[in-house]
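Subject: mismatched residue count in predicted assembly?

I count 812 residues in my input, but I want to confirm that the predicted structure covers every chain. Input:
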Amino acid sequence: MTPGLTIGPIHYFWAAEKKRDFYARIADEAPVDTVYLGEVICSKRQPFFDQHLPEVAERLSRAGKRVVFSGLAEVMLKRERKACAELAGQNELEIEVNNAAALFHLPPGRRHRIGPFMMVYNGETLAHLAERGATHVTVPVEMPATSVAGMAQRAAALGVGLEVQVFGRAGLATSARCYHARAYGRTKDNCQFVCEEHSDGLPLDTRDGEAFLRVNGIQTLSHSYVNLFAEVPAMAEIGVTDLRLLPQDTDMVAVASVFDDIRNARIDTTEAEARFDEIPIEAPFSNGFWYGEAGHRRIEANARPLA
Amino acid sequence: MTPTAPENSATTDQRVPFRLADVPVPLLPLQPILYRIVRRIARMHPEVFDRLGAHQRTDFVIDLTDLPLALHLRPNPRALVFRAVRKDRLPPHKAHIAGDVLMLLRMLDAEIDGDAIFFSRDLLISGDTEAVVTLRNALDDVEGSIAEDVADMFGAPGRLALRRLRALAENSE
Amino acid sequence: MTTGELVCPAGTPAALRTAVDAGADSIYCGFQNATNARNFPGLNFTPQELGKAVQYAHEKGAKVLLALNTYPPEGKFGLWREAADLGADLDVDAYIVADMGVAAYVADNHPDKRLHLSVQAAAASPDAIRYYVREFGVRRVVLPRILTIPEIREIKQEIPCEIETFIFGNHGLMVEGRCSLTNYATGLSTNMDGVCSPAHLVEYRRDAEGGMATRLGPFTIDRFGPDESAGYPTICKGRFCNSEHPEGYYAFEEPISLNLSRLLPELMDAGVNAFKIEGRQRSRAYVKKVVAAFRAAVDDIRDGLEPALSDLAALTEGQKQTEGAYKTKKWR
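Triage response: the counts match. Full output below for your records.
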């Protein structure tokens, strides 16, 4: 079966105008099936875009996209707990849960999705969540193909969707501390939203001058972009139901189009690679996690057996 | 109480009558003694080798920074190697550990913590880090005092020497 | 419910006996495989060793908590199941778990055993903790090291289970159970393989000036001058560069250890039931000194005395200590 294509939540702190433009283009031009909205990284950013969410959701729905609202990954403060309870409590929207705090507030049997921050690594956890209303799970970005294949079987048996991130920086860690604020000698409470200055994250290079990581508020991302375009046919074969593109500060419509063509077998990997060459992306591509190797690595697709 | 180099305290503290670095160390007579030591440890604590796993076949060099010699260790229970070597003629090795004798002895005796002296840069390691960590963990599971076992081998003079070393170590704190 | 229970680390049988003898109320440890988060070479227990260790601890009135605090990847769940069953056979007193699948397995198959929620589950709110209590019957939560004491007090009032907090040792910076930094650099996962900066991929390179570079896989994660104190070779304790800090800075945290000895009375007053000492990878020397120091401090507090706090700074990373997030929100 042809897997669905999704746009994951925006991890960076982009200005409201930039986000609205981004989603307008996605609605009008991107060949994707599902769009996840909402702030997942930092609760301090939430008030800046929440007011625009209904309008953006409406626009995406009108364009035929399925809209899912994603919840916060880290929940500790009162306002974060409140946001979780509200997300879990409302009835009209489809939601994606990224913290067990939201699970606690879900009414019994209420249908919901499970996001990649929930760390679902095995069928046993999947079964536990499915029994309580989970309909769809995105696995952690570090999960290797061998385990994804087994998960896809378990998910199919449970009637649950299984999604894998195929594009964008890998979220490698989150923290209670804001590293963006720290880089500027500030604390999280007094961050002055310095993260807005880096629409593609704040670089962390090694002391040898090698690009390594990116800071995005409380999150640490890979420098490289995960790009599993060459693995899409194998994913379809093992039963991955959805492919997630994480928004980056590049031409995401062009990215989505390449994935759309490759999932529909309209182009081969060589042509896909050529198409990516034309998209302005400075960071290197990586796919190591998928092969159970170091995540930063890029392993040639034809040098490995099919998953 | 950062572990300090004993040489420094020995030169500032005149009460210490014994300076290890001054002891002339001819290597050849040392070899059978060292071999007896490691054989004895192996006999008394065979469980050490299980913890070493694949690193039974790793060559370690232990550079005794306050002595004019280094030690070569290959902890293979079937073919134990433990011998003194010259610093300018080190054998091929995968793991390198450097520190002064008293500090290493105290680490062996679980008197000081390996991580702590690594943090303070008094313990230097290079080469195969896993081998060093494995050796450290394996030796740390040996209860009682390896140093005392060794001293016992040499009877009363051995125990006296150990007491002196320990006094020196305490004075260096 | 007791209060001030001292929960101590043991990486080897000898360390476990040392901890018991030094006054530990409970000792946590794991098997020699990926089922625990300190899956380091030469460390941990064979089933036979654990059996003897449990016997030793029980004879002296101490408890043994089995760490099953990693996340089994699909296809390998059997290893965690076996470890849980073995733990029951060997009579451990509780399991420390993070993964929901593992929690469900233990709850279903060993319902008479206590279940503790590992810090690796990253439950930092009453809501998240109550989910685990409701679904798996968790009896105790190990709180992440990110909360202030007033926040801990508030949580305690809302949850129907015991609280354990870290009081000494390595100061984890990232949300536990959600960190793939090691895997990105090395191909081994903290969650799935139980390793953080695996030793066989750590290299210390000395330069001619007496400095040292720490490498993890192909990446230089820090450089030290000859006299600079070092820390653990983990990415979150490394120094990196950007336009704000072209010469390099501790982007996440300096090499520093947590030491809450001064805050013990406040923590007990806030309702913390158990104090955890980090360091299964540390030596017997560390276990002996730290456990004895905290045993004396807790006993003093129970007797209404001012605790005498021995100096543990030499055992800390970078020879520096902090009260971290517990003291002030500014840490964040």
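The first strand of chain A starts at residue 4 and ends at 7. Marking this ticket as 'not a bug'.
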